[in-house]
Structure formats: structure tokens, C-alpha cells
Amino acid sequence: MIQLQSVPGQPVEQALVVAPVERDRTLEMQPQGQDWLLPLVAPTAILPQEVRIGESLPAPGILRLTGETASTRLRLDLPASVITPSELRLALRSGVDVLTGSGMLQASVNGADPVEIPLPGASDFTTVSLPSTALVAGANTIALSVRQPHRIFCGPEASFDVWTEIDLSSSGAALTANALRPDAEGFAHAVRAQLARSGSLDLLVEPTVDSAVLREASGVMIASLAGVGRLAVSSFYGLQAPQYAAVALVASERSAVSYRRGASGAIVLQVEYQGDALPDLTGALPMLDAVRPPTARIQPGQATPLSDLGVADILGNTHYFRRDIPFSLPDDWLLLANQKARLTLRYGFSRSLADGAILLVKVNERTVRLLPLDRDGGEILPPLAVGFNASLLNPGRNILSFEMMVPGAPPDQACPIRTTDMLVVLADSTLQIPPSPSMTLPGLAAPFSGLTPARVTVPAEVASDVELQAQALRLASGLSEPLVPNPAVSLSVIRLGNLRLVPLDDAGVTQRQVQDLLLAARPAGAGSAEPLTPAPEAEAEASAPAAPAFRLDETREAGAVDGPGILGRFGAWIGSAFTAQGRLWRDANEFRQTAFLGSQLSLPEWMEGRRGDALLWRPDPAQPEALWLILSPQVAVDTVADRLEGLIANRTAIGEAAVLRADGTWDIWTPIRPPMLRERLAGADLRAILGNYASWSPLIFTLALLGLALLSALPALIYILATRERRN
Q1: How many Å apart are CA 619 and CA 400, to the nearest integer?
Q2: How many other CB atoms sit within 10 Å of the CB of residue 638?
């Protein structure tokens, strides 16, 4: 309340009294009356962000189906307290290369008869209605498939030109504004809708929120999200209000949990806390189903069918087709020598594929077999053994890929209508990986495999920095729970301004070197009004007379001088051979680099000249489970979380530091360290153990064998010398 008139007997300077502002007052306002749209939910956490044949998520909330044929399965949760809708809304748009009049979308709700919808032309998103009587309260499955031929061309490149996008945030079931009640059930549906729209759930806090309370509340929310979406710590006074759901953390004189409807119509879970104690949130937050299913694990030494990896028969019906099959190996599996793994492939292809059609079998992006598909088709072929080096595999997550490319016949005309499948890979194909001794390569991968989201924190010295806390919490919400958690492993997240907290001296790195690594490079001369001063060598070259650019004598070039003699040329060759540009020096340097598995550069030398957006590091050897993540000012936290999740899953961080480059890949610094044996030496594993050490360092292994040979020859030499002396 604001008083504008003075009170008799009260000083004028005390007449203006401002009542305290209720932080949640907007949450008590009535909704604006717009309809709700419970959006369709896609498994966004497992979809690639780059465009691929089939499903992809090129932009938040935009599902793209690419290729002549593609399909997806979406989910829609309907509350039991509302009248079941009789139709769905789909917001669609197709590419300009889709043949008009022939593009078609088929939609089936809960296995009912499919309904065909013509694809819209090349324009902005168009909303179409899908009538359905098969919708039920609870979970609904919507299966969508598209048929979208190219209007001009045919071939692998043309497959990427035909696509249809679905705006998930504008597709779903329409409900009235008050259809969802502000209670636990309504909030659960609102949370799913909010995650489908924005990919994150807001936690509204004050700038002065207690850091311990913030961490505790965020931990409960991250566990509830289960990797389905990210956690966004926001202010009560933000410009953009949540549309469907949010959680408000309010300091109060009591501890209580309640549901309210906000001004935008969103259902808000209001958590009031007293002091540093949160109320019991059990049952207040919905427990979402994790969308990242655990990667199927292969038992080394046994033939594993693809069906055990969660794969049905693979059908490829686009001129460019790719299917990735992830699988995992034990964390202590390691083979660096030439042991062989084997894929027993059962496949078939159409008889009418064009000349030049091929199938590539890949392991971790390395092609291990090229198979022709332009002859002997029309049936399932006999099993084919595809052998490949087991050293291509990593402990942890690996990917087996099938990639098909079929040229158009002809490529400059629309593809003919097909009546047969182009490729099939049967699910009873098997993959067999050889066993290995229990060994690991030292590095960040071992502690990373046990990192839990709850252990992603900020240092205690900057715990009051709410913005940094928000970045760390959003990063933590993008990580999955490990199969075997290790509570001793921690990841401290800081910015460049907090480098004083990092034990840099233990690694021999300066703050300036880290800043040069993570700050964007400035062009030469940028930001400076001073002219560039040429180097003395450049001045000398500029002052030297220019060589004539003409030739008048057939036997002698203008300005030519007598060349050196034989001794001069020999001396020049000897001198240049041992310089940094000489051949002998280069050969010796290459031999030195291949003598070990790892980098001979120190960390400061390795960082020189590199640029990145984030530095992942283990600076203190005395604390191997204390990890640090330093963020650059220009980095997006969601990008770091996605790339960090992939680095953990693939277990490729076998070094001590990793730099996230601008293209989303990691540069890893791997010092020279031998593999570690994690079991007692056994005779059955001796060959594999020696093979790992020999592959890690052929030089040391060769020198060791030579040393053993000399030692074994030493007794014979002593015996010969002794017998010769007795004869004499």
C-alpha cells in the first residue's frame, strides 16, 4: 500500500510508506483465459541435433523427419479429470523439394487404423486436425510416418532434400484454460507440457536465496526430471513467465508446499521454507520416466544377437540410409593389439538396386567392410563373417553402424515407386567381442564414470554467486545417473574470474595460459590504434634489391650466381638434415612420437595455440577424484552438458585435461602413462597383457625383449669364455 497524503502529526519525509512486495503475488492472479495445448512429447534427449536421415531435432521443439520415408513415435499424456479430446492438432511444414500431391503423412493413435493427411506445401507451419476416437486418459502413443518423394532428383543427396517438420509445442490436444486443476495431478501434466515446449523447468528464486537451500531443492528437482529436461534457475522478476509449470522457492515463516495458478495460467508449485530447512517434497514433484535407456552391454567372449541390444530387423528404404546401434563394454575392458572381433551379418537387399549401390559397416565411425548391393539381390544372403580389429573399440559406449548409399537411376528424375524393401539386416545377426584382462588406461574416464549430478557443484568460496550456481545446476541436470555412483568424485564449475580457486601451481600452469585458451582470439592489430611494426628481417628483405623478373640469355638467368661446389652441397645437406626442417630430424621426431601412446608435451606446451570454450581438468595429482570445469564467457551451458554427457558415455577421456572446441569436439591431453593392470597376473591373460603393453609402447617393448635376449645370452657367453680359459 502506498500513502500519498501526509498523516497529521507525522513528518513529511515519513509520510510516503511503501508496503512490502509479495514475491508470489502474480501467482495468485487469475489466468488470462487462453486455451491450453498439451503438446506431443518426443524422446528429445536421445535425438540428434544435427540433421540425419530419419528423426532429428535441429531446433528446440522442432522434430524433423528426413528422407523419402521416415517414422516416429510420440507420446501424449491426458489427465483423467478432463473430457477426452476427440481430435489432435499437428503443426506441420515440408520442404520445397517434396513432390506436391504425393507427400503423405500417416498417423495412428494407440494402434488404431491410420489416418492419412496430405503434407502441406512449402510454407510456414500449418495446423491440421487429426480426428481420433482412440485417445484415452493417461499415456497415449501417436505413431507418425511420412512418404515424401523428391519432385526432381533421386539419389543419396536427394534424400536429405525432402523433409517434414513437426512443431511439438504447437501440436497436441487442446484443453480449456481451467481444465487442469492446481494440484499434484495437474502439476504433473503441466510439467510434461512445459518440458515439451521449452525443454526446461523453471525454479524461481530470489537473488539472495540461501545456497544450501538452493542446492537441496535443485537436487530434488533434478532427480525428478530424470534427464527428460533441464533445470533453469530464474528470477521471480524475469521478463518471460513460464507458460505451463514452474517451481517457486520462497523464504517464509513456515515450511509448506502448495499449488497455485500463475498470471500466465501456469501451475506453480510453491515451496516455502523457514531458515535453511526445506519441507518434505515427497510426492509434490512428478517422477518422470527416464528417456535415456541404459545402453545394452555386451559380454565379451560371447556371441550377442542384435536383438539383445534392443534392435529389431533393420529396414532401409531411402537412397541414403544409416542406422546406429549403441552398445557398451565393461569399464575395465582393454585390447590395444591386433585381436579380432567379429560381426556375423545376416542381410539381404532388393534385386533392382542401381549400379554402385553399397553398404558400409562401421565401428565407431571407422569403416570395416564395404559390401556391394548391385548384384545377387532379392533374397537373404548366407551369414557373412565381418572381422575387424578389437582395438577400434573402447571401454564403455561404442557404436555399430550400417550406412547404405544407392545412386538414382537416373539421378536427374524422380525416384520410381518401389514395391520392395531396399535393405534388411536381420536381428539375429551376432556380434562377438574377444575378452580382455582387467586393464584400464589412466585418465579422467575412470572417475567420470562414477560422477553423479548431485556432485556437480561450485566451490564454497563462490557459493553465493546465484548465476554461477544456476549454470552448474543446469549442467548437472543434463547428466545421467551412473550405473555405479562414486560419491567421492566431484566436479567444480567455475568461470575465468575464479581461477584463483584452482590449484594451478600443482600443474605448472598460469592464469594467463588458461585465459589465452578460453578467451576468443583477437585479430592481429584489433583494438589498437598503433601501427604494426615490421620485424627487422622484414625490413632487411624490403631494403634488399629485387631480383630481375626477366631473362635475356639462354645459358644464364639474369641475376644468377654460381652455385656451390660438391663440398658446399655436401655440407649444406649435412647441415639441413639435422635442422628442424631436415628429413633426418623429421624421421627421428616421428619415431619419438610413435614410441609411446600419449603426448610428450607438457600441459602448458599442449595448451599453447589452442582455443576452446571449456576446459575439463584434474589439476591436483594428490586428489584424482577432484575434477574442475572452467567455462569461457561465450559458451552455452547446454552445449557443454551435451558434449560432457557424450564424453562420459564414450569413455574417450583417457588423458588428464580436455578442451571443448568450438565445433563441439574434445581435444584431449594424454600424458605418457602405461596401462594399469587391475587383476592378478594369470597365465591365460599373459599374451593379451603383453600385447597391450607392446601396443602402448613398441619401443620400450622392443628394448625389453632385446634386454631379455642379452641377459639370456650372458650365461652362454660366460660359459664359453670360462671353457676357453681352461683349454688354454
Answers
A1: 35
A2: 16
Closest CA to 31 of 173, 180, 188: 180
> For residue 123, is pLDDT > 80?
no
Q: Give Dmax over CA atoms of the chain in angstroms.
A: 134
Specify the residue for cell string 575387424: 388
Alpha carbon of residue 230 to chain centroid? 15
- pLDDT, residue 571, reads 57
CATH superfamily of 36-175: Galactose-binding domain-like (2.60.120.260)
Q: Residue 192 and residue 38: Cα distance in Å, rounded?
A: 8
Q: Closest by alpha carbon to 493, among 479, 510, 508?
A: 479
Give the CATH H-level superfamily of domain 303-440: Galactose-binding domain-like (2.60.120.260)
3-state secondary structure of 173: strand
Pairwise CA distance, residues 69 & 67, whole Å? 5
Return the CA Rg of the chain: 33
Q: Which three cell numbers, joined as nine digits, stand for 447?
A: 572417475
Question: What's the grid cell of residue 344?
Answer: 556375423
Task: Residue 102: name the closest of 70, 46, 45, 146 by CA.
Answer: 146
C-alpha cell at 552: 635475356
Amino acid (one-letter) located at 648:
I
Which H helix or E strand runs over 667? strand 666-669
Q: Rounded CA gap, 240 and 250, in Å?
A: 19
The pTM is what?
0.79
Question: Nearest to residue 406, comparing CAs of 489, 321, 504, 347?
Answer: 321
- What is 445-519+597-669's CATH topology? Chitobiase; domain 2 (3.30.379)
Cβ neighbours around 313 below 10 Å, total? 15
State the Cα–Cα distance between residues 112 and 612, nearest whole angstrom. Answer: 51
- Eight-class DSSP state of 199: S
Q: Where are the domains of the chain?
A: 36-175, 303-440, 445-519+597-669, 683-727
Question: What whole-number distance in Å separates Cα of residue 418 and Cα of residue 317?
Answer: 9
Residue 248's pLDDT band, with cuts at 50, 70 and 90, is very high
What are the cell numbers at 137? 486418459
- State the pLDDT at residue 366: 95
The β-bridge partners of 362 are: 367, 401
**Does the structure show a pLDDT above 50 at 508?**
yes
Q: Do domains 36-175 and 303-440 have the same CATH topology?
A: yes
- Burial code of 109-137, b = ≥16 C-beta within 10 A, e = fewer? beeeeeeebebbeeeeeeebebebeebee
CB contact at 8 A, 70 and 106: no
**Segment 563-593, tens digit of pLDDT:** 555 555 555 555 555 555 555 555 555 545 5
Per the document, the length of the chain is 728
Q: Residue 262 is placed in which grid cell? A: 500463475
Q: What are phi and psi of 39, to 5 degrees?
A: -80, 160
Q: Is 514 left (phi over 0), alpha (psi -120 to 50) or beta?
A: alpha
Buried b (16+ CB within 10 A) or exposed e, 34-57: eebbbbbbbbbbebeeeebbbbbb
Cα separation, 141 vs 47, in Å, equals: 18
Amino acid at 12: V
Residue 142 pLDDT > 90: yes
Cell of 60: 528446440
C-alpha to C-alpha distance for 171 and 91, rounded to whole angstroms: 5
How does 403-425 read in b/e, with b if 16+ C-beta sit within 10 Å? bbbbbbbebeeebeeeeeebbbb
